[in-house]
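Sorry, can you check?
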Amino acid sequence: MIEKENTKYLIGRLWRDWLRSQIIRISGAVFFMVVVAATSALYPKVIELAVDMLADSDKRVLTLLPAAIIIITFIRGIASYSQSVLNQSMSLRVIAELQKSMFSKLMYADMEMMQDTKTGNLISRFTNDVNLMRDALSRTLTVLGRESLTAIALIGMMFHLDWILALIVVITFPLAGRPILRLGRRLRRASTNVQTSLGSLTATLAQSFNGIRLIKAYGMEKQQNQQSEWLFDEVYRLIMKTVKGRARAQPILETLGGFCVALVLAYGGLRVISGSGTLGEFVGFLSAAIMLLQPIRSIGNFNANLQEGLAAVKRTFDLLDTEPKITDNHKAIILNKAKGNIELIDVSFSYENSRPVLDGISININEGQTIALVGPSGAGKSTILNLIPRFYDTDSGSVKIDGHDVKNVTTASLRDQISLVSQDITLFNLSIEDNIRFGDSSADLEKIQNVAKNAAAHDFIINLPNGYDTIVGEQGTNLSGGERQRIAIARAMLKNAPILLFDEATSSLDAESEFLVHNAIKRLSEGRTTIVIAHRLSTVMAADKIYVMNEGKIVEHGKHNELITKDGLYSRFAQIQFQYIKKI
């Protein structure tokens, strides 16, 4: 019962939200399908006339019937081409709109959802699921339209030729319906498992290809091969399950088809021998019965395609129905040019199904101040940076910008006030110019070059073979770590936001790159409220205030000169780093 309700709901929603807008294409395709069906049904009649004319030595069989066949075939060919183009155009347009909606949904999805979902599973929605939906949409119109109409037209012709034989056919074929429907329901569940497995496989492949350097460095090729082999075998096993499910319909249809033709031969032959029917009627009817096998096979196999497609449709609708937790409330105001005053008031936070990450954090940052967050890994420093642009909401307490709770301003206007530069720089496989332009899509080349100069990036850019037109490669692989960081800083400069967030922006750089990036950060921070996370104390020494964190709490705060004299966590960090530098 649940399966039927799901099927009805999925098909109804697909029609209401996506297919109804394609009514012109669908109507055109159905019209040409009617033409295909009607012309197909004429063939048995032509064969009947040909046999009877030959039996009577009627010379019209040499002229009239060949001309009729040519005309029928020509009309059928044009109609078949037209319905195919309209059908494919409809399904491709629907799929394109679904892909647009899915992509838009993901672009506005919560960080929590994006980080908890495997990338491969998301990509699978746009590739594997889409292929199944496109195939199902195309076949649905073809089967329910052309094949069903052809079957109806042929059955009508069969009743015209011999109604008793036609009854035999009409009674026999529906016997296949029940077992085929049962197979289809099993197939939908199997298809869902296949798509999930393909998503895991895609994620593993992407992870392996992106991490190929690490894999080779640690000699992990064998382990990666073993893991991928297991996934390939699992996908094979699940796909074979669907293949067998689809194939089970074939013997049912073939057996019934053969049984039906045998009955027609036996009973029809008896009628011809007894003189109660002509040879032409018998041959024409037999031709119609044989022609009927193809649309009946298509209709029988259609349920398998439909169930696979509906499994993909359900996964797609599940994604589209996922509501983000971070939304603008109906009273949200637009945060115009912020001054940069930031307050965290008794903030507590934990990621889903994990221990508390922040516990009663209170921080006050005045306009134009630079503050630093220092502490061991897992202390909650990066989480604070995630709460300010409202990538996540606090469990309790509040985050305020210029006195406005971030939950009471629009997320778009809030994030317009913030530039983020992290250790893991995201660069797209575009030109350097286009990557910097992410900070301001309206910026011209001169403006981009100016911020690149301030970020100490211009000199290395112009020395590249294609300068600002150089394609950086996937994730910026064609550039060094320091070069990527400087492009990211140039991008942040171009955005010209009043609040800057730096998350370990210099942690993995060599001394020269760190010096250049540090100076670029210093220039960028002038007149802006800046929060810096760093393990290297040399990066935070000049901060107006340093907050030292441990296990989600602020354990001490003050300026560098104040903290260094205390016997606290900051002082111990400083001693360890200075001793390390001294040894070097």
